[in-house]
Amino acid sequence: MRLSPWWRRRSGLGLAAIAYVGVDYLRHLSPLWHGRLQPLLWTFFAIAAIIRVPVYKHWSSELRSALPFIFSLVFMLSALLFEAISVRFVTVVLGLDWHNAAQPLPDVGQWLLLALNEKLPQTVVNLLRARIIGLHHYLMLFVMLGFSVLFDSIEAPGLGLGARYMFTMGVGRLLRAFAFVSTILPSPRPWCASSRFNVPAYPHPWAQKYYVPYATDSYAIHQVIHNDIAYADPGEYDVDFRPNWGSMSFLIDFLRPTAPDGSTPWYHLLKKAGGGCNDLIYSGHMLVSVLTAMAWMEAYGGLSSILIWFLVLHSTQREIRERHHYSVDCLLAIYMGIFLWKMIGLFWPTKDASKNKRLNKLEKVQGRLMQAAKDSDMDKVKELLKEVEVSNSQVKQNPKSTAMWLFSGATIVFTITMVLLAFTLTSDG
Q: Which residues form the Sphingomyelin synthase-like domain (predicted)?
């Protein structure tokens, strides 16, 4: 039986997403079948996409979106670099002694999940604890959403959707870095820093001056508030190891390498910053999942988007349950993901301004065009069609496009300013 266009549009991509997540979960249930089915599934996806490429009709629209796509990619990678430096900084600035001594904050959300473990059937608890979906799954689901434009599952251009996704991700990552670097919270896993990072045990001299004297003395904190200056001189402190990183030596105060670490290039330390210990408010993993769910819901919709939101909720409780994040981190990530996607959507340029302009003009002259056709007045028909084309050629730059570029430029300038400010503050140590 021949499938209808509605079935292909509303079910094909959803079934592909379910197949991808389901086959990948077999790695936990049956590694043997996972090893057999996953290559077959990816081969099928690749062949289907290759077959559709020659008959794809929207290449001109994709080319117009190529420049915003490249800009958004560079912007997102720059934001991730800034975030990686910030992740390392909030871990090393107070030293390992602080991490080992700092108690995790009380988390009512985790208490609730532990209480539910005692009330719910064990089968349900096992389902809640199952590692059904992870960060890479959400990223791949969005890639599948973007490529589904080849099958007319979503509206072209796919590169335009990808550009908006990456730009929103970059903004979200920058705001996240500014949040967690502003106030350093103790990790829900006290052993995290010692197991992941090889850093000095003592705080950075900058942190010693402004934090250590008041950490446990309530009277000293009162004095700091009253005088609004450093309460005491920390005295003598160990000198940090300073490797020779040439023009990148300004990163030493942020990354604080030890002698073994300093023998490797600076970017090797940033690789270890992935999945830090104190980059808590708000959760980066949950931001990715929410942005994927928002993009899927807006571009595709249907029951599959509802399923993805259920997976987002499952990921949320797992992040809290496994103590990767506090409950507030995950809740804020959900709020911010929805807010950023909607907010940037207000500034993002329309998919095809010329097409919309042409359709609006055609709607205005529709009555006259039909009358001219009835009268067999071909000259009038040509005149009206020419009027539509002239209006299309006079399309001005979309105000949303201008606002988006101004917004992105301001974001980049703000990022550079914050980096220079942080460098200035720490370089006096």
A: 276-342
